[in-house]
Every structure is written in C-alpha cells, then in structure tokens.
C-alpha cells in the first residue's frame, strides 16, 4: 500500500491507497496561520509535522494492519524553511502568499536585469511569493538569523527531512524558488550571489536535487515506530502541491488542464518543453513527473469566499443555494478580491475593491456571488494565458472549492467547457501516493510508466460532471469584461 500526504495552507491531508488506486483510509488536521497587516503570512514548520502525525494516524486507523511500502509528500509551494547548524528551524516559514517581501522581489528582479534578464538567467520571472525574495528579506531584516542559515528547504522537503533525516529537494518544487534554473534543472549561483553578495553561503545550504524516480530514503526508526509504519517504508521525492495535483489528475501528458480552487487558485497543463513568459504571469515550473508544468496562480481564492460568507452570516454550506438563486454578473456588482495583494496580476501591495453597488443589487447573496465571480474571473484569465486563448473542452477541477456543484457549474457556463472532478477529490494526496508507487517500483526493479499509473489510479466522477449551458455564456462574458475593465481602471492603469 501507499500513503500520500498533502500539506496545504489550511491543513494536512493523508490518503492510504492500494495498488489499484483504491482509497482505504484518509485523515485531515488543520494548521494555524500567522497573518499580519503588512502582508506577512507565516507558519511554524512544527505545525505541519503535528498535522501530518494526526492525519496519518486517522488514515491508518481505517485500515488496521495495512503494510505501507512507500509514501510521498506534497506541499504548498515556495515557503522558506531555514535550519541552523544543529538542523533546528531558525524562524517561522514565510509562505507562498506572504506579500511583505514585495520590495525585496522588486530589488532582485532589477538586479538580475529585469524580466528579460531573469528569463535569460533562470528561465522564469520571480514574483512576490517565490522563495528568493524571502531570503533577501531575511538578509535585510534579520541578519543574525540569516547568518545562522545552514540548510534551506521547501515545506515538503522539510517534511521529508523530518520523516527520513535526509536533506533533499526535487525539480518541481525547486522551480518555484527563483534561485533555480528551470531549463537546466540546477540551483542558480547567480541569483544566490545577488542575495549573499557572492560569499557562497547560500549555495552551500542547498540540498541535492532528486528526479522523480529517485527516493529520499526510508523512515527514521523512531518516526516509523511513532506512525505505526515499517522503517523500510520508502519516501519518494514528493513535490509541490500543484505538481502532485497534476499527477493526481493524470496531467502528466499534454492536453490535460487542471484548475485548483484551494487557498490559492491555480491552473496548469503539462508540457514536454519549457515555455518562457516575459510578463511572468505564466510560471514555467518543472513538473514532478519529468517535463514542465506551466502554471498561473492567484493568491485570493477560497479564503475570500469563506470570509465573505462569514461577513454576511453564512457558511460554505450556503454557497450552492446562493449561487443558484443569483444571476451571472451579480446584478452589476464586481468584487476585485485582492485582500492581501495579488500575484497574477502582479499587484503584491493591492487591496480589494467592490464596485458597482446600487440600492437594487446590494444584497448579501450578490456579495457572495460577486466574491466567487471575482475569484473565478481571476483564474480564468490565467486559463487564457496557459492555453494561449484556445478554448478547453474539458477541465479537471480540484481543491476545496471544487466540492461546490454550483461553483463547478459556473466554471462550465463561463468557459464553455465540461467540468469534471476526479473520483478521488484529494488530488494532491493521490498524486503523492502515485509518485510513491512510481518511485518504489523504480527502486525495486519493477518500473512502470507514470502515465500508466495514472490510467490505473485516476478515475473521473460521472455524477459530478457539469456541462455548460450555452445561454449563460454571454452573460458571463459580459460580467468578465466588466471585471477586466475595472481591473484595468482601478489597478493596472494606476500602476503605469
Ligand atoms: N463544499 C464546498 N464549497 C466551497 N468551498 C469549500 C467547500 N468545502 C470546502 N471548501 C473550501 O475549501 C478550502 C480548503 O481547500 P483546500 O483545497 O483543502 O485548501 P488548501 O490545500 O489550500 O489547504 C476552504 O477555504 C473551504 O472553505
Ligand atoms: O503558490 C502557489 C503556486 O505557485 C500555491 O498554489 C501554493 O502551492 C499553495 O497551495 P494551496 O494551499 O492553495 O493548495
């Protein structure tokens, strides 16, 4: 059996899987989040470990006697975990949605020769939220902590370290650091030298890079005993949560599109070759299955929807009925949901706006619909970029928001595509378990192609399939047009 673990922003999930991709047990534990008005978003890595323990305990309790031969870890991308000479965490991890480091990101991009210079040096344009600016922020704001850095890890690398005692990284998650050349798949000495002044301090702190068929190691005996697993259990390289979501939706071949509605919203589609986007909106990340995973991410997604529901005294359980009884365009109300800045478009210092209020449309229901539409229109702009304007016929929707039938219907109506969800809704966990299966088979001499593993393990739910209603395409096109013109007027125009 295989175990997939997914450390998201709001919590950690675990999924126990058999050889044929059937789920046998699952678990979940929430994380706290440190949020400050200056844009800081942080978590203690220890919280992820505690949540992993609990989620795995719950999953294993549902299948007593399960023999887990391999596990894989999926983690929120970009977070910075720094360890000292005793391999102890130095400070809380700054996360993917931390916008406090916007000035440091601007400094770095400028020093590297602007967007074009960055593309030439590392094949990607760093955006606020990527890991590099967090290191520069530490160097400028916490020099003592910065000098103590001996090891640099991403969230899933840290969990792998806790599990195995080994320091390692892999290409998919590393490609979101902005100190990694996404074409050559190597750490970038040039970017690191911009941060440490060329002392070599940071490059020495970076671990070895693994490819998907390699493993980090096996479980530390004390961790194995605590989790109720065998110390021979193999830990695969794992990856960023989007890379694992890609594997878990069979997005390991060209032509598949996955849209995730989690704390962030993301859209991505596997490619055999890397792409270069000089605007930085499309990130040419490496996938964790070989190849690349061009991705667009917006920072404001289900958290905005949940907060709006709370403000009007409703819960997630009310979301479907609110969407069903309101109309596309929320009667003219437009919500630009940049509550903690935004990554796409690149507006890390922005704050949100609600426009078009009138005495007729100002209702709690329209407010909720406008929040959902604002989040959706943001990610659909990303979809246009990923597919270069081509229209998809089918989209895989995953993440907590994809549980909502009416939100999926909205996606279908607005895009003209069929929205399908995988039979296993925790696609990040599934992808991590599938990658564990792949790596285990590689190291035990029974290799199997990841695409074949996907054919075996990724099913499509027939009940939760939403087909587009053609008569609603035009109202959504108009609402999206209003959203984009407000965005231009209120944010992008002012930026120039
Ligand atoms: N039925 C639902 N409809 C809409 N949103 C939902 C539903 N169930 C959960 N969510 C939202 O999904 C979010 C969690 O999504 P998830 O993908 O687990 O996030 P993360 O991986 O970032 O921790 C929460 O904000 C929650 O409100
Ligand atoms: O920064 C990105 C993608 O580049 C985010 O997608 C994070 O990886 C967080 O994921 P969720 O917690 O929303 O799953």
Automatic annotation (TrEMBL):
Tell me which residues make up the Carbohydrate kinase FGGY N-terminal domain. Answer: 1-248
Q: Name one GO molecular function term.
A: D-xylulokinase activity
| Annotated site location: Important for activity | 6
Regions crossing the membrane: none
Where the record annotates domain Carbohydrate kinase FGGY C-terminal, the positions are 259-439
Gene Ontology biological process terms from the UniProt entry: D-xylose metabolic process; xylulose catabolic process
Which residues are named in the active-site annotation? 241
The answer to keyword Nucleotide-binding applying to this record is yes
Report the InterPro entries cross-referenced here. Answer: ATPase_NBD, Carb_kinase_FGGY, Carb_kinase_FGGY_CS, FGGY_C, FGGY_Carb_Kinase, FGGY_N, Xylulokinase
Q: What is its EC number?
A: 2.7.1.17
Instruction: Output the CDD domains linked to this UniProt entry.
Output: ASKHA_NBD_FGGY_BaXK-like
- Residues binding substrate: 77-78
Protein keywords: ATP-binding, Carbohydrate metabolism, Kinase, Nucleotide-binding, Transferase, Xylose metabolism
- Main EC class the enzyme belongs to: transferase
Q: What's the catalysed reaction?
A: D-xylulose + ATP = D-xylulose 5-phosphate + ADP + H(+)
Briefly state the protein's biological role.
Catalyzes the phosphorylation of D-xylulose to D-xylulose 5-phosphate.
Family, as annotated: Belongs to the FGGY kinase family.
Report the HAMAP family cross-referenced here: XylB
Q: What is this protein called?
A: Xylulose kinase
| The species this protein was found in | Edaphobacter modestus
